[in-house]
Amino acid sequence: MDPLIDQLEAALEKGNAHATFEEAVKDIPHKLLGDIPDGLPFSLWQLVEHIRITQWDILEFSRDPQHKSPLWPSGYWPKEKAPAHAGDLKKSVDQTIADRKAFIQLLKKAGDNLHTPFEHGDGQTLFREALLIIDHTAYHTGEIIVLRRLLGDWE
User: Fold this and answer.
1) Which of 102, 82, 104 is nearest to 31 (CA)?
2) What is the pLDDT of residue 16?
3) pLDDT tens, 19-72?
4) Helices H, strands E: what count in the chain?
5) How many CB atoms are located within 10 Å of the residue 125 CB?
6) What gap in Å lies between CA 82 and CA 39, rounded to an integer?
7) Residues in contact with 149: Cβ distance below 8 Å, sequence separation at least 6, in sequence order
8) CA 6 to chain centre
9) Residue range 68-83: mean pLDDT, rounded
10) Cβ 46 vs Cβ 32: under 8 Å
């Protein structure tokens, strides 16, 4: 399982064919975090927080059979268009990275049980949850980049 886990870890941490989450959120000016261009539903802040909340939920579901997920969709999207404090973006990004590292540790600990369904789920496995984090984060990272381009903050 080590080569598979190594590939999952690389997909979680690296951009491979696209920008990483860290690259997408690097140096976002605070003044742009709450801007929403016409016709779009979310701000940069809401996208970053959505990634953090969703990954946290997947991590907790994967390691805690008693975990209760937030209500969908309201519990996964912040209502606030911008963070309350200047340091909130850094906190959100740092937590996202820390939770990703914790999830990678679950993968490494699972070893040959990567495909074993969770007793508390309805067929989910750690492998499936890893793919979900990879896919979800890549999707919304792309949205962050497009939004930054629309706001004139991406080369």
Assistant:
1) 82
2) 83
3) 999 999 999 999 999 999 999 999 999 999 999 999 999 999 999 999 999 999
4) 5, 0
5) 17
6) 18
7) none
8) 19
9) 97
10) no
Among 144, 122, 146, 142, CA closest to 134: 142
Contacts of 155 (CB under 8 A, 6+ apart): none
What are the angstrom distances between the C-alpha of 56 and each of 93, 120, 143, 151, 155?
Answer: 12, 17, 19, 28, 30
% of the chain at pLDDT higher than 90: 94
Residue keyed to tokens 């200047």: 86
Residue 1 has pLDDT above 80, yes or no: no
Residues 68-106 as b or e (16 or more Cβ within 10 Å = b): eeeeeeeebbbeeebbeeeebbeebbeebeebbeebbee
